[in-house]
């Protein structure tokens, strides 16, 4: 008996939806076995990881707060991934965006109008886009692989952050801690719905999901991105400019990461310090694939990853699993999604090779 | 018992016999109970359209695939071709349509790499020279492959097969990349081989070759064996009808055609080559008048793809004046701008160039027709309009598809080509550039596509057809030129030019007829 992969005549739509769900379920099973083997209570770990954040209402705000930046960043990344432009440096663009916004805040400590938040957000988008412009320029001008250049720029952005908050932008009244001055009330995002704890980022995430959905499925730009990814030669033949697609997808994904960064800074932290970089930019890569590069899928996937992230903290305190376990779960999930993708295009066939070999001379 | 010991085949025993060979692929029965006999020293044709199951059948004979049912007999003894090595051990050699050669290595090294046994270089070289000599093949074992012509490369594969002293040689569409003269030389070699007792299984869809070369022909259609006949006793037309299973329709072309004013002019177009194996275009000039079909012949890889890219706008020219459409200089325009100016193009490769396999036919219509057919508004695709345009293409060109929402990849090659041609022709282009319009397309679809080209010309469009199929060009075009190493020959009138002359130009003689005559004489002197 042999197991064989057979190419499907057309990709299976059922599998397209089933593989991400299956990947999440399989992550739970494998994760339980893994933590059992490591000497923890595997079943309890999974319960805390995946179910406590959903079932306990006091965790919902945490989940939504973490889901929002993941969704916003992943929407931008999905655009590039669809065009097969691999921006791995969203974490750097996220930091650069926060720095852009913080620069506006640094210049305007005395402005009391709440409208100052608008130029701050714009500066966040521009900061992220500028950070992504470097890989775009290197790729279109010198054919430098964007995977490497965008990833390396993450570390540059970390250095830049620690230089600025420990140097020119350091809070003079901060007891010598490496951090910026706290944003003024005007520089903070107002609550999304007065009287509730709905994070403002979530409102952006919902609106942007819809915008990206229309752009990807209906607009001629979304068509350009899809053709460029599926068949670059056909895109050229159809009159789409490959360099322009590289530039636009990187600038947009960088801008989105930058927006997520400044939203986070102005709604959660209220300043920039060394604790700001949170790994959202990397986790969003998983979100974009788990969501099948589809805006609605990404919206759901953002919540799934946010749940595991919140659940990871719960599990650390309840089951005492190590803090790295959250990362293990996320990596396991990405691996299983990508492995499951094979099933979209191939089906498994079990071949009973009976006595054919016996007839061989 | 190994069948190899069973070489002394008595008269009347087939070298290879297939009984009831069946092979099922997902969704298609590639071979349905195929039986045939190849006698010792026989040149046996395997004839059929693309998709008839010829390649699948020979892959099973050569052990690359295993049949689901049926049996093989070799020299009267039953046998199983479990892999190509086992097939070679029996004495089966195969020359593939696409060569597997390392460009940067010598002929000798390439041959050594393809052998199952390690033979010292000096012995191998002597052996190669002996084979070359006994079959009158010309090839220098020390040449680097990248410097060789396609015909010479094919000789490497033939020598590689002959070194194993095959009892059966399978040739898969061997002449598709050869000039007429090279093909004739190949036939000579094959006849000599057959005279020495080697059986040859010759796969082709070119009927005149089969008539010239083969003693027996097995005709496949839709995976089934439809006839076994002696091609010398049959007309080409009768065989063609067996192959397609229907009456052969001919392209109807008005006998006296008149042309309008010059519509499309290429003047001194040169382009540097891209990459190490690209071809540079050198000083290409030609003019096509309204209503005229201009053909460009040539062996594959002589700059055809580069020329198409340059004409369609996928590579722009450094000077706008090199290409002009009704007096408008368009050399610097991009594909979309050229389409708006009235120039449509169809590249050779359907999947991933002219169409995106995983996209629906509607999306494939949007790919090139979005501007001329107003399929977009405010940056959004108007899906209703796009779907109805795709449906219109499907209907007017009798494309067999479930509907505009089927993916391009689910269509057969011929149907996808009809869709692509239809998509461009319905945009009513003033100039249409087509590369290999009927490559890998079944005869029925090929006739429909050629008819559509003729009809478009009759409406006053200027048409350029780039093709390796000389018969197609001679049947379709009014004027024609040959491309060789990125250079275009003088323009000739179809009907006044001989196949011999075109063949020589394909092989690389440029310039005036005197040089051609000189070359012809030289060649005769050489072969005699």
Describe this structure in words.
- The complex is a heterodimer of chains A (361) and B (528).
- Chain A is mainly alpha-helical and 361 residues long.
- Chain A has one domain: Orthogonal Bundle (ABC transporter involved in vitamin B12 uptake, BtuC).
- Chain A has a two-stranded antiparallel sheet with strand order 1-2.
- In chain A, helix 5 packs antiparallel against helix 10.
- The longest helix of chain A has 28 residues.
- Chain A starts with a strand and ends in a 10-residue tail after the last strand.
- The C terminus of chain A is likely disordered.
- The N terminus and C terminus of chain B are likely disordered.
- In chain B, helix 3 packs across helix 5, helix 11 crosses helix 12 and helix 12 packs across helix 13.
- Chain B has two domains: 242 residues, 3-Layer(aba) Sandwich (Rossmann fold); 161 residues, Rossmann fold, CATH 3.40.50.
- Chain B contains 17 helices and 23 strands.
- Chain B starts with 15 loop residues before the first strand and ends with a helix.
- Chain B is an alpha/beta fold and 528 residues long.
- In chain B, strands 13, 16, 19, 20, 21, 22 and 23 form a seven-stranded mixed sheet that branches. Chain B has a six-stranded mixed sheet with strand order 6-7-8-3-9-10, with helices on both faces. A four-stranded antiparallel sheet of chain B has the order 2-1-4-5, covered by helices on one side.
- Chains A and B meet through helix 8 and helix 9 of A and strand 5, helix 10, helix 11 and strand 18 of B.
